[in-house]
Write a structure and sequence with these properties.
Layout (H helix, E strand, L loop, with lengths): L1 H10 L2 H16 L21 E3 L3 H18 L2 E3 L6 E3 L3 H15 L3 H8 E2 L5 E2 L5 E5 L5 E5 L11 E5 L7 H15 L15 E3 L2 H13 L4 H17 L3 H14 L2 H7 L4 H32 L11 H28 L3 H16 L27 H37 L4 H19 L1
Antiparallel strand pairs: 1-9, 2-3, 4-5, 6-7, 7-8
Helix pairs in contact: 1-11, 2-8, 2-11, 3-4, 4-5, 4-6, 8-11, 8-12, 9-12, 11-12, 11-14, 12-13, 12-14
């Protein structure tokens, strides 16, 4: 009875209506509610089967060097320190450090690298009076050529032949590239763990067939689509939005003076808090389950006659999405009950922001233990990367079970706080509230 009362209070409220509207809007914006234009085609001989990333030093080293020198010439380095792109422009001293690293990799004199590409003091500008042209030389290296178009029109093109030294080891190369990343402040593609992004190789027909067969046997086709839906749902919505419902419901009771009435009822604190938590989870997951099936139904008609997993959306809803929603709701209830303030929204928002942005470079596959938002997203290629998912599934399982356990722990703490309030032991709570009120007052005054 109490469960249904809590559920009705949530579902028939304006905040819940806004929650559903925002959820639908966010998922539509990521094109995961309709996969009708994303059919997986069985590979045929002599076709283009896409690419993959592998840690092949012979490919990575010249490609990474080419990228580094191109950015060095422009003094414009792209990094993602917290997820958002940051264009780094270096001063003279740091540019010279990059030149020394390029020199160490290629064996070309550092002064030649530095003076042939740059001119000026302080603000580095290109001393290229024509257009720069970067062309591979067919031997795993490349040539940077520049053409003068002013008083040196009659001179031959200037060229710097940048080739990775034959005697440099891959470990030394990685060390030097890591120094580049450190100079740039981190978040660049030159970090040791990011260098595989330069190891792009084409898939063979045999690999494409094997991958397609794995899609049919392991995922039963629908699993890959359900996985991509889950990835976006957690990243865009369910790791943040549920906290608003949890906080609003707790504060709403207090403002309506319902908490005082509940305190004197002969219902245990365990039952009250647990059923409220369960009702909030139910309300949050209902539209998610409906939308996951709307999304997956668009796939069924494309693969008529094939063996499909019609329970795939439900498996991912409960196994992938719900643990993130659970921990956010539990934190929302706990902090609201503890402080009588909506501070949980700030805490959850900060956690979501840091988690999703600090892991931006591992979007393709990130299942670390404390990730609020586990990722498995390479756009349409996510359907094919089943082996990556299978290999990382144990990590994902531990991550999801950890968050379920932590959410239960926060619910228990909420019950203890709630029971203390019912018994009139609210002095400590009032002191905490005074601290937050004082901080808010100071901000308003300033």
């Amino acid at each position: 009875m109490l469960f249904w009362k809590e559920l009705k209070q949530i579902i028939f409220g304006v905040p819940y209506f806004l929650f559903v509207v925002i959820l639908v809007f966010l998922l539509r914006s990521q094109d995961v509610l309709d996969f009708s234009d994303s059919k997986i085609i069985e590979p045929e001989p002599n076709g283009n089967y896409g690419t993959k990333n592998e840690e092949i030093p012979e490919i990575i080293m010249p490609t990474a060097l080419e990228s580094l020198y191109a950015e060095f010439q422009k003094n414009n380095y792209k990094t993602y320190p917290i997820g958002f792109i940051k264009n780094v422009k270096l001063n003279d001293n740091k540019q010279m450090e990059i030149a020394k690293i390029i020199s160490a990799i290629t064996g070309v004199d550092v002064d030649q690298i530095y003076t042939n590409s740059f001119h000026n003091n302080g603000d580095m500008t290109l001393d290229i009076r024509g257009n720069a042209d970067i062309q591979p030389d067919g031997n795993g290296a490349f040539i940077i050529s520049t053409e003068n178009n002013l008083e040196e029109k009659n001179e031959k093109d200037k060229q710097i032949n940048l080739t990775v030294r034959d005697d440099i080891s891959y470990s030394e190369f990685k060390h030097l590239m890591q120094k580049v990343d450190d100079i740039l402040g981190g978040g660049s593609s030159y970090a040791s763990e990011s260098l595989t992004s330069y190891g792009v190789v084409p898939l063979t027909y045999e690999e494409a067939v094997q991958r397609y067969e794995l899609i049919k046997s392991h995922d039963k086709i629908t699993g890959g689509y359900a996985r991509l839906f889950s990835d976006y749902t957690v990243a865009m919505a369910l790791s943040m939005l549920p906290v608003f419902l949890a906080v609003i419901m707790s504060i709403k009771d207090k403002r309506a003076k319902m908490s005082e009435l509940i305190y004197i009822k002969k219902v245990s604190s365990v039952k009250i808090i647990f059923l409220r938590f369960l009702a909030t989870i139910t309300a949050v997951m209902l539209p998610v389950i409906i939308l996951s099936y709307i999304s997956n139904i668009t796939v069924w008609s494309m693969y008529r006659g094939m063996e499909l997993d019609y329970l795939a959306p439900l498996k991912y809803d409960f196994g992938w999405i719900m643990p993130s929603a659970m921990i956010i709701i539990a934190i929302g209830m706990c902090l609201t009950e503890l402080t009588n303030t909506p501070i949980a929204i700030v805490v959850s928002g900060l956690w979501w922001f840091l988690d999703i942005n600090m892991g931006i470079k591992s979007v393709t596959a990130s299942y670390s233990l404390f990730r609020l938002v586990p990722r498995h997203n390479a756009d349409i290629h996510s359907y094919f990367r089943i082996q990556d998912f299978v290999d990382n599934f144990p990590n994902l399982l531990v991550n999801r079970l950890l968050f379920v356990g932590l959410s239960i722990l926060f619910v228990i703490v909420t019950i203890i706080i709630y029971e203390a309030k019912r018994k009139g032991k609210r002095n400590a709570n009032n002191k905490i509230k005074e601290v937050f009120t004082s901080i808010t007052s100071r901000k308003n005054q300033s």
